[in-house]
Every structure is written in structure tokens, then in C-alpha cells.
Amino acid sequence: MNGESNIQKAYESILGHDFEKAIEWFEKAIAEEPNNAAYHHKLSITFARSNKLARAIEHASKAIELEPINEDFRFHLQVLNARALVEQAKRQLSMPSAHAERAIFLLKEAITLDPLAIEAYLILGEAF
Questions:
Q1: Interval 41-70: pLDDT, tens
Q2: In this structure, which long-range contacts are made by residues 30-33, counting pairs with CB atoms below 8 Å and at least 24 apart in sequence?
Q3: Would you say the pTM of this structure is higher than 0.85?
Q4: Which site from 43, 50, 66, 71 is most exposed, i.e. has the minimal number of CB atoms within 10 Å?
């Protein structure tokens, strides 16, 4: 089976709401064509939707490494990095000795990366 056939199987899995199986198919496609930036990008999206943020960032970064001028890939990575910053800020604020200043800094950075990060704005309001 070639990479494109694996991608089609991944999409079939997504349509069937089997995201773990979709991840497996995307990974098989990447095994067939490891330098295909689009495959890494698609896997990154599926990881992000499955709340596997670290893996999503890993594959989004690989897609940009392979195709550095692709603006869609670059924007996707920015959104993922913004999500990671929001998660860090939430952890910061949940600590008993919470330092709101650090969380505010992280949230402002997240908003810079993704101005549509609504959760960042909401948590920023709470931090203030």
C-alpha cells in the first residue's frame, strides 16, 4: 500500500469517528513517505483534535522543517503553540502558590500567536 492509499484509509477512519485508527493510518503513510510534509501536517491535525498536543506540535514542526515556506503549516503550528501556552498558564494558575504575572505573560503570548484564542482571553480576564 502506498502513502496516498493510507491517507484515504485515515480519512475513512475519521469519517467513522475512529481517530486512533486514523492516527495509525497517517503514521503508516509517513512510514511510506517520511519526507511528505503534508502527511505530517495531516497527522498533526488529528493529534490536535485528539488532545495530544505534544505529538501535534512535533509533527507540525516536522511539516515546516520539510516545507518551510508553507504558510498554512506555519499558521497551524502557531495555533498549536498558543494552545500549549494556554495550558501552561492554566497549570500556573492552578498551583497553590500561583503567580498570576507568569500566567498573564503566557496568555498574552498565546494571544499574539493566535488572536482568535478565545480561551486565552477568558483565562486572562480571570488572571487579572
A1: 999 999 999 999 999 999 999 999 999 999
A2: 30/3, 32/1, 32/2, 32/3, 32/6, 33/2, 33/3
A3: yes
A4: 71
